[in-house]
Amino acid sequence: MKKILELFLTFMKIGGFTFGGGYAMIPLIQREVVHNKKWIKEGDILEIVAIAESTPGPIAINAATFVGYKVAGFAGAIAATVGVVFPSFLIILIISYVLKEFESFKGVQYAFNGIRAGVLALIIKALFNMYKQCPKNLYAYIIMGTSFILAAFLHVSVLIVIIACALFGLVTYLVDKRRAK
Questions:
Q1: What percent of the chain is predicted at pLDDT more than 70?
Q2: Same-domain pairing of 38 and 60
Q3: How far apart are CA 116 and CA 158, in angstroms?
Q4: How many domains does the chain fold into?
Q5: Distances (CA, A) of 10 to 41, 89, 93, 99
Q6: Do 49 and 93 fall into the same domain?
Q7: Domain that holds residue 158
Q8: Are residues 109 and 169 in the same domain?
Q9: Is 61 strand, coil or helix?
Q10: Where in the cell is it found (predicted)?
Q11: CA distance linking residue 54 with residue 178, whole number of Å
Q12: Alpha-carbon distance 114 to 108, whole Å?
């Protein structure tokens, strides 16, 4: 029960102090679950992000569910998921009541601009951390460049890009395995 409560509180802290969605939460999730709590290994965080991105739903919720399950089974998955969602739910509930009254104030508009800039920095940090952990070979660079072009410039659905990347990675693995024989 102690581990369940610890999961809930850890992910509540992550959910409460991260603005900008799942990608902005990745560095905090990594710091908490890998470095501070040592629940998972450094190499596992990239796999958690890949799985969380590949499954339906928000990345932070999927990552919390995965980590919670890995640490304490089904109850841990529930605790981590509720923990990461609860602060956002509470904040949105409160903001929805007061935002209409204050949205025309310049100070509020500047605050939201500042938050956007901070979120961008967190997303870039998450990108840098994932890049450091990714394999660096010709296949990885081809997948990375092609995915970026397809999603950013050709507006191909991200879901199609993820599925195509998974298939390309699987085919590459099978071809390399056959060559090794």
A1: 98
A2: yes
A3: 22
A4: 2
A5: 17, 16, 21, 28
A6: yes
A7: 135-181
A8: no
A9: helix
A10: Cell membrane
A11: 27
A12: 10
38-63 pLDDT tens trace: 999 888 888 888 888 878 778 888 99
Token couple for 25: 């939460």
d(CA 12, CA 29): 11
Residues, the chain, total?
181
Phi, psi of 134 (to 5 degrees): -75, 150
**Residue partners of 91: CB distance under 8 A and separation at least 6:** 16
Res 135: pLDDT:
81
Residue type, 82: V
At 82-118, the pLDDT tens digits run 999 998 889 888 887 777 777 778 888 888 889 888 8
Residues 118 and 175 in one domain: no
Q: Which two tokens stand for residue 57?
A: 């739903």
Shared-domain flag, residues 26 and 76? yes
> Do residues 35 and 12 both lie within one domain?
yes
Check whether residue 32 and residue 83 sit in a common domain.
yes
pTM, two decimals, is: 0.57
CB-based contacts of 86: which residues, under 8 Å, 6+ apart? 12, 15
Distance of alpha carbon 154 from alpha carbon 167, whole angstroms: 20
Q: What mean pLDDT comes out for the span 137-164?
A: 91
- Do 76 and 4 form a contact (C-beta atoms < 8 A)? yes
**What is the largest distance, in Å, between two alpha-carbon atoms of the chain?**
69
- 129 and 145 share a domain? no
